[in-house]
Specification:
single chain; alpha+beta; 3-stranded antiparallel beta sheet; 4 helices; 3 strands; 12% strand
């Protein structure tokens, strides 16, 4: 049997390091992560939270000529050899 894990507003606020008010405002504006309203209780399905986080995860973009992580590692290794 499959069981979903749910987060309270307090738990999600702690996870994202935002205020409960931020999450409440997002709900009022119909923005942010999906949620369930069960009577007066609001719950966020953990998989919806993870999906939302993944959708907003940013990858750094390299400008032409910008060093890559490998270039940085090489510079650190050779810094003391001069």
């Amino acid at each position: 049997m499959y069981e979903d894990r749910f987060l309270t507003t307090e738990e999600l606020a702690e996870r994202w390091q935002v205020s409960k008010g931020t999450l409440e405002r997002d709900r009022a504006k119909k923005q942010g992560v999906r949620y369930l309203k069960l009577g007066h209780a609001v719950r966020y399905r953990l998989q919806d939270v993870i999906d939302h986080e993944n959708a907003y995860t940013q990858e750094p973009e390299l400008d032409q000529g910008e060093a890559t992580n490998g270039d940085c590692a090489e510079a650190i290794r050779t810094r003391g050899e001069s």
